[in-house]
């Protein structure tokens, strides 16, 4: 059984290298929402696990918020989906909702997810705007102990 999980995980991890980078078990959603903390529209990408059913409020999911690095946007992290897929397929981890907020901010393309006079209130955007938005729009546990960053 363990050998099969390892082979399945390796196969999923090799898919992008073989040119099938658009293959994802889950579904990707690009969202725009109004951030009160920033006082303007903000973006984020959400990766939902396979089998996520918006019509089934009984099934709940933990949430992982992934913060991209400075001077790059969340789209450069698309390589993570096959890795997450492989971990899901192998049974190494349970399904979760992956949230990637856009932290790019002029003038230097990096908010560092902090509140500042230069960039705006990006820390507040995550804690006060994104967390409640995700909890209201998706079937999450809605509790701190079921979130990670």
Explain what the structure shows.
The chain is an alpha/beta fold and 149 residues long. It contains three helices and seven strands. A hairpin with a 4-residue loop joins strand 1 (27-35) and strand 2. Helix 1 (2-14) runs antiparallel to helix 2.
Topology:
Blueprint: H1 2-14, E1 27-35, E2 40-48, E3 63-65, H2 80-90, E4 97-101, E5 115-116, E6 120-121, H3 122-137, E7 147-148
Parallel strand pairs: 3-4, 3-7
Antiparallel strand pairs: 1-2, 2-4, 5-6
Helix pairs in contact: 1-2
Mean pLDDT: 87
- Summing up helix and strand content along with how strands pair, one would put the structural category as alpha/beta
Biggest sheet descriptor: 5 strands, mixed
Low-confidence region ranges: none
Overall, the morphology is: globular
Order of strands across the biggest sheet? 1-2-4-3-7
Task: Note the main attributes of this structure.
five-stranded mixed sheet, 7 strands, 21% strand, 149 residues, globular, two-stranded antiparallel ribbon, alpha/beta, 3 helices
